[in-house]
Amino acid sequence: IARPFVGQPGAFERTSNRRDYSLSPFEDTVLDNIKNSNLDVIGVGKIEDIFNKQGITEAIHTKDNMDGVDQTINYMKKENNGLIFTNLVDFDSKYGHRRDVKGYKEALEEFDARIPEILENMEEDDILIINSDHGNDPTYKGTDHTREYIPMLICGKNVKSGLNLGTRSSFADIGATVADLLNVKMPKHGNSFKNDIIK
Fold it and tell me: 77: buried, middle or exposed (CB in 10 Å: 19+, 13-18, 0-12)?
């Protein structure tokens, strides 16, 4: 990960131009399966970097969480068909790793205030999945990732309400469900919960 910074010794500040230099996935991912089905795979934030551009049809980098929300909503308003995959990196890089409890709280509240706007821009058959990709408890010692289970919230007009999916066997279940919802080739890993959530 390259994290550019500006300033003088003792007062450096990171810029928003972070870049992840990743290995290409060792086999096709759900993103490849979506792209190979002639559907859109739009990466917002550092998604393009994480997958080394593989399986992405369009991408935009963002400067912070709220820019990520803005760009996501911009794509939601456009004619596209497939997946919009957004990473809001501030939770991780600015607050989780930095163990900034107050900043994390405020970032959650800021994102929470934007959820109604996201919901208002969803089409009849759109499904929103909100999850993290790992633990990063801002109250824990050190700066490394932490090991709690990730949260997962799912909503849409065709999604059952009040459903508890319990503790899943794998993070890969989300990818399998996305593939299943888009009717593309299923990945090798993960179990879809599409039939559990759709009305």
Answer: exposed
Neighbours of 187 (CB within 10 A): 20
Q: Which helix (H) or strand (E) holds 86?
A: strand 82-86
108-134 pLDDT tens trace: 999 999 999 999 999 999 999 999 989
Q: Are 22 and 50 in contact (CB under 8 A)?
A: yes
Compute the C-alpha angle 84/63/153, nearest 5°. 40
Bridge partners (DSSP) listed for residue 40: 82
149 burial type by CB count under 10 A (0-12 exposed, 13-18 middle, 19+ buried): exposed
Tens of pLDDT, residues 26-71 = 999 999 999 999 999 999 999 999 999 999 999 999 999 999 999 9
Q: First vs last Cα of the chain: how many Å apart?
A: 42
pTM of the predicted model over 0.85: yes
